[in-house]
Design brief:
The strands form 2 sheets. Strands 3, 4, 5 and 6 form a 4-stranded parallel beta sheet that branches. A two-stranded antiparallel ribbon has the order 1-2. The longest helix has 13 residues. Helices cover 28% and strands 20% of the residues. The protein is of the alpha/beta class. The protein has 3 helices and 6 strands, in the order βββαββαβα. It has one domain: Transcription Regulator spoIIAA, CATH 3.30.750. The chain starts with 9 loop residues before the first strand and ends in a 5-residue tail after the last helix. Helix 1 runs parallel beside helix 2.
């Protein structure tokens, strides 16, 4: 019996995933002032322990002013790195690759502004 394609390795340049199961980044709003917590460790770790080939960490802000909501995970300070590193080590220990979705929230347009943009075709921002 052959291995289903989903469970076969996938080579992405220098990275070989043990399978094609990828956990997409899901915004969890669980960071504390940008810091990852044990909750992040356990949440990502459960997917790795379950056998995912790649586990992506949630939307992680690279700049403080790029945070859009309370609980955003951060990467704009060096002291955020140790906990994120701990998460990566756990994922690797379980045989999963680690990924991160980096992001900075730009200009946020509220519903009323969006309606004006659609109606008038321009925006005074």
């Amino acid at each position: 019996m052959t291995t289903p394609l989903l469970f076969s390795p996938l080579v992405l340049r220098e990275l070989t995933l043990k399978n094609r199961v990828v956990v997409a980044p899901m915004h969890q709003y669980a960071a504390q002032q940008g810091f990852a917590t044990d909750w992040h460790l356990m949440n990502a770790g459960r997917f790795a322990a379950g056998g995912a080939g790649l586990v992506m960490l949630e939307s992680t802000k690279v700049e403080r002013r790029g945070c859009g909501t309370v609980g955003d995970l951060g990467l704009w300070r060096d002291d955020f790195v140790p906990k994120l590193s701990q998460i990566v080590h756990l994922l690797h220990h379980c045989g999963s690759a680690a990924g991160i979705h980096t992001m900075a929230v730009g200009l946020i347009v509220h519903a009323e502004q969006a309606e004006n943009i659609l109606r008038e075709g321009r925006a005074d921002l």
